[in-house]
Amino acid sequence: MSHRRPASGTDGLGMSGVDRLVGEGARTVGAGAVWAVGDAGGTLGGGSHGLLGQGPYARLRPGPDTLHDLASLTKIVALWPCAGVLWQSGRLPPDEPLGRWWPPAAGHPAGEVTVRQLLAHTAGMLPYTRFEQLYGRDLAAIRAGVLAAPLHRPPGTAVEYTDRAAVLLTYLVEDLAGAPLDELAARWVWEPLGMADTRYGPLGTVLAARTAPTEYDERTGAHLRGVVHDPSARLLGGVSGNAGAFSTARDLARFLTALLAPPPGLPWGGAWIDESLREQTGGLVPARGLSWLCAPGTDPAEGTFVHYGFTGTGFWISRRLGRWALLLTNKVHYDRGVAQLTELRNAFRQAVFG
Questions:
Q1: What pLDDT digit, counting tens, does each position of 279-289 carry?
Q2: In what order do the strands lie in the sheet with 245-247?
Q3: CA distance 249 to 67
Q4: What is the model's pTM?
Q5: Alpha carbon 91 to chain centroid distance?
Q6: Across-strand partners of 315?
Q7: If you average pLDDT over every residue of the chain, what do you get?
Q8: DSSP calls for 283-319
Q9: Helix 139-148, helix 163-177: angle, nearest 10
């Protein structure tokens, strides 16, 4: 990635300091890392460190064109903007319980929750998936199970992050739009922004060859590479709102730039971004926007938002500062420990946003 111009206000570090921070952090975490920082004009700077993986992957280094399993960043890159298209066109009422206007939810516990609560993770849904264990492998049975599952707590009483909210919202978005989420995301998000490498898996041989591997899979006897790591998304065929998308730092830079400077005619720009990037949880903690999390270590009033992915991915946005940042690692390839990665993420956020 080219350093287009120096960024101001990076806590005195500058781009070379941010690069050193990520390099040292990647060695401590023990994973490859790709980072970038930008503004409404595009990428300001970036870099990459470490190796793509162990064994046969130890000869490979990550870069801005390395595909990463985005894990829960899929919620932002695919599901959230598609929900925004429907919201801005008046087809997705944010505050009416689903059961009043979406027939599949009527008479079920899921009918008690609202779209806003699903996006803010205040819907009170079960905090785990366990789809195969609870419902088997049939997709219709899983959908029925998600709709009929009892709520974990009353809607609107607590913030509790759960993939079930994204899965339920996927069903709703697909029903309203009349197409699967991968087609909607490509049509409304990735193609308009020129995100040519972003897609759902499983990836073909050529793309898989430049994809960061995730965990070793006992069933196949190999590391997952180009196949979604998240077991729920894999069970759902690889396409879900909670996980399943793959992308590169180069493409994510285009996406984050568009949040600060939406292109004319973007069907989820403007009002949807305004609505989403403000606190939506009414003083409950942790504070969240719509899909986005208020960045840990910051005051929600500062308006710095983040989303993380289980595989080791993450990105941040601050409209107040006019800046975005991304940090992609393949941490889960090595182990599931999060303490050192959390330290790196927090230090990176502080360096870029203060």
A1: 999 999 999 99
A2: 68-69, 245-247, 199-200
A3: 8
A4: 0.96
A5: 23
A6: 307, 326
A7: 95
A8: T-SS-B-SS-EEPTTS-GGG-EEEEEETTTEEEEEET
A9: 110
